[in-house]
Design a protein that fits this description.
Largest sheet: 2 strands, antiparallel
Radius of gyration: 23 Å
Oligomer: single chain
Helix content: over 70%
Structural class: mainly alpha
Strand order of the largest sheet: 1-2
Number of helices: 6
Shape: extended
Amino acid sequence: MTIRTFISGLVISITTFLTPIFGFLLLMGIMILADTVFAMYVAYTTGNGMKSLTSDKFFNIAPKIFFYLGSIILAFGCDYLFIGNGSVFGVTLLGTKVVSFTFIANEIKSINETYVKKFGKSIYDTVKELYVTVKKIKKDISDLIDTDNN
């Protein structure tokens, strides 16, 4: 067996093992990226521009990625080892889903905290105001249509 065959076999084995949780890992990566980009935007716009973006702040991204993704993989390994292909309370991969949801909720909370720093209100309040405004516009449009028909 050559080194190339061994490495390709190892990569294929790891890929095959992680395929069921690829969506969880991808979503977590997207959430980390969104939180990082939004925090950089807020730091850039509210701080001293490029001076507020320092390398020591960027260093925290790597441990976060390894911890979150590693924990999800570890939870999947525990699910696979202890439960196998079965389910707990009718939910397959319950441990993996709980860990993933917890980390995703943490990232959403972090994005919301950054949003509050920038705009002074939460994302929920902004969406609620947008909903009320759209509802009001819809009512105004329906009133205009009704008055045109009469």
